[in-house]
Design brief:
Helix content: 25-40%
Shape: globular
Order of helices and strands: EHEHHEHEEEHEHEHEHEHHHHEHEHEEE
Strand content: 5-15%
Radius of gyration: 24 Å
Amino acid sequence: MRIAVVALGKIGLPLALQFADRGHDVIGVDVNPGLVDAVNAGIEPFPGEAHLQDKLTSALAADRLRATTDYAEAIPGADAVVIVVPLFVDEETAEPKFEWMDQATTSLAAHLTPGTLISYETTLPVGTTRGRFAPLLEKLSGLREGHDFHVVFSPERVYSGRIFADLRKYPKLIGALSDEGARLARDFYDAVLEFDDRPDLTRPNGVWDLGSAEAAEMAKLAETTYRDVNIGLANQFALYAADNGIDVYQVIEACNSQVFSHIHRPGIAVGGHCIPVYPKLYLSTDPDARIVRTARELNESMPSRLVERAADMLGSLAGQRAVVLGAAYRGGVKETAFSGVFPTVDALRARGADVVVHDPLYTDDELRGLGFEPYRLGEAVDVAVLQTDHELYRDLAPDQLPGIKLLVDGRASTDAVRWTGVPRLVVGRG
């Protein structure tokens, strides 16, 4: 097949390489000329994704992949177009911001030719594929969905760092707008993916047709929102446990020994492209979902809550030198999307602290580019807030933070023995 992938980001490029690896001719289109040049030159644009460089090198050597900024070069004659353009949420209104998706759909429609399957893999609010993008494609192309072209929603379900493994591990969900669209989508994904044997599933691993775009849209939002709500519950338990001298991690371990309990871990922040965002996409079409809203609000409040507790323990943070350990949203991943570092720094500054930031994955210049003053281990500091569970921080000791008066461990990842004699505030431990 000839396949076009729209947006060669951290999901789109691995997908393009997966398709090429299965023997198909793939052209990726992206509005970022630097990214396009890097891909065509065989340079991994975002290190850290397992097997990405090897697959990029192989795809280029086999002449199965090329990248362009020109939709007119990528879209006409494609058997399938897969769209993975980012969708954002307005920070003030919490409503989805469709600008980039609308632009991509508009550009696609201008060059759409009959016989193409269009798959939206970007996570969308329920009803968006049918109610927004299919009509927009019809209006701008002059073609009819279900007759001249077919649209399907098929959410990505992968985790940064292990995308190629996850493509094999998890069923590929599809939801089309017509029976013929569903058939084409099933055939397409069967041709570009391979699946691991999963005896734990209720039916064979592979392409799972959920019957409608709306069901597939909801499935993606539900599985991610579940995690946010579960973390919110864990954080609620952690706050209560800390107030009552209880170790919440012992409680969680005990609860999860029972087959019906799956309590997640609490923490100072929930970051990344998915969990902080998708519950808001769900809420945009189900505003009465109070459980979802409450969990999201609690998770967003955790940085401020822990900083407030630190201020109470020290009497004040005014004039104190505070270091936030970790800019990345999770350990081992060089990515700051919705990272807890931002609200943590803001909360410390709001209480008068002089704030610096450390992260082993970022250079000093990169930290400055994020708006932070960089810190190096060994420099004097009054208080430290561990925000990211980098492996480096597990062995952290007071002598690496000279003068420290308080460690706030927002990930419960440091060793208590190493911190004997130094006050240590751990989320979820009294």
